[in-house]
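Support request, priority: normal
Reporter: lab tech (M.K.)
Component: structure prediction queue

Hi team, I submitted a job for Regulatory protein RecX from Pseudolactococcus piscium yesterday, and the status page still shows it as pending. I've pasted the exact input below so you can check whether something in the sequence is tripping the parser. The sequence length should be 264 residues. Please let me know if I need to resubmit or if it's stuck on your end.
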Amino acid sequence: MPKIISLEKKKRLYKVVFDNDQTIYVTEDTIVRFFLSKGASFDPPEIDKIVAFADFSRGKNLGLYYISFKQRTKKEVVTYLLDHDIPNFQIAKIIDELTESRFIDDDAYAASFIRGKVLGKTSGPYQIRQKLTEKGIDKALVLDKLDDLFDFDTQVEVATHLAEKLVMTKYSRLPLKALKMKISTHLTSKGLSYDISKIALDNLELESDQENEADLLQKELEKVLRKYSRTYDGYDLKQRVSNALARKGFDFDVINRELREIDF
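Reply from support: The job had stalled in the queue. We restarted it manually and it finished. Here are the results:
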């Protein structure tokens, strides 16, 4: 029957060496549970039980350590334990125990995550849903929490806030049409629907600053003329300049009025 000839504390585990040259690493809980000490003897089936419990105990301690920094989802904890070579069958037991004791709670995680995004006014429901499902939260649970915590009026409020921030930095640098397109694209990229984005835009009641747009048009016109006049002339040059300005968000009627003043 193998006998323990050495029991040495390492960083987080204890190194246990038997007289048959077998070495195992166990937690302090394992030592207490199986009364491990130098000189104690165990038959092979008992050693197998010790190793299995040590894996479970180490995995549980790792899980608790990982969770101690911040709230984690079940998927995140599973991935962490796999990365630390905890056997799959032990991971299932660890997750069950941590879930039963509420150390892992995907329901509470989803609610907390959504409240944080709503409070910070940084994301729409589609982006939140994507991020939570990537973290392993059940899609039905996510949708249920979004219905409860991110209603229509709240979505409009968040969309309007995000749109206002963009207007503050872009209003004087873009024509009105381009600004509205940029805001709409930005809001949908943040996970807000087209309908919500449209309401937010309407709430801003944006109006064109004709003097500013005229200045912007002149600057862009000079740039595209320099660019295309190196290669094109005549009608071809005029069309390319017109299309380039239209892509920048300038109105075709205003573009054509300006281009009539130029001899192509």
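Strands lie at 4-9, 14-18, 23-26. The chain has a mean pLDDT of 90. Let us know if anything else looks off. Ticket resolved.
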